[in-house]
Fold this protein.
Amino acid sequence: MATCSRQRSSPGHTCRAFSFGRNDVLLIMYASMRAPAPKYVRVVSTTSELRLMDIENQTAPTGYPSSSHGARREDSRSAWPDAWLITAVRREPADEASLDVLVKRYWKTLFARCQILALDREAASDFAQEAWLRVLRARNTLEPDGNFHAYIITVATNLWRDRNRTDRRAGAMADSRLASLDATSSDHGESIALVDVVPDAGTLSMDEQVLLKMDIDTALQRLSPQLRDVLVSRFIAGESAAEIGRRYDRTEQTISGWVREAVREMRIHLGESRNYHAPADTR
Amino acid sequence: MRREFDIEQLLRWRLERAESDAPLPPAGLHLLERARPWWELWPERFAAHVPVEGGVLARTIVEGKKQ
C-alpha cells in the first residue's frame, strides 16, 4: 500500500493521484472531490502498480511545479526554464502552451541560422519547421537538462547538410560550384582591402542595409555549400577547426585552409558587388 | 590607415538582420499535428497498405480515434 503524504493547502483544494497497472495501463483517478480538510490524504494502491507521480518525480528537474493552477500557471510559462518546458512537452499528450513558449523562445535564432545557410526565406522557414517536427517526433528522448538551443540548431543544420548532399548527388550543385571556381580565378589578390567598398554596417541607411544584405547573401551563395558551412560553423557557431575537421574527416590544417579560402572568396564577391552597386564610391 | 573588412562581423550583422526579419513562429498545436505519423493521420490508408497484421493495428487506431 502506498501513501500520499502531500499536505493540503486549503480545505477546498482537491487532491489527484494517478496510478498505472503494469499490464493494462489502467488510469485511476482518486479523490477528485472536495474533502473536509484532513491533514493527510491516504491513497490506496496495490504493490504492483506504478504511480504517475513517482514516474514524473524521476524525470522532472528539481522545482518543477507539480500541481496545476489554471490561468496563473499559463501566465508563468514564459518565465519557465527550458528544463520545465521540455518536461511538459515530453508528456503525452504534450503541453501545447509550453511548446508555444519553447518555439517562440528560439524561433528567431533558429530561423536566422537557417536563413544564412539556405539563403532563402521560404527554405529557411521550412528547415526551421522541419527541425521542430524532428524534435517533436522524438520528444520522449529529449533531455530536460541538455542545451536545447544548440540541439535544435544542430538538427536544422544537419537537415540543410543532408539536403545539400542529396542535391550534390543529383548534380544540382554543379552550377554553383562552377561559379565559385570561376570567381577564384579572377585577378583580385588576397590582400584586397574592402573599407572603401563595404562601409561600416552600423552607419548605413535602410536602403544601403538592404543592398548590403543582398550582397552578403549573393557572396555566400557563390561559395560552395561546404565552404559556407565551414564559414558559418567557424564564425557563427564558434566551432574550432578541429571540431569541424572531425565532422568532415579532415585535419585541422585543412579546415583552416578552407576557412581562409572561404574568407578570400567572400572578400572577392563582396568587392565585386559593392563596386557594382556603388560606382560613385570608387570615383 | 586602411583596414580590411571583418567577414566575421559582417556575417554576425547578417545574422542579426535575419533574426529581426524572422517570420512569426508556428503554433505549437500546428507543429504537433504535423509531427504525427502518417499512419495515425490516415489509418484507413495504412490498413489498405498492410492488409493482415497492419489491418488489426489500424482498426485499433481507428476505433481509438472514434472513442
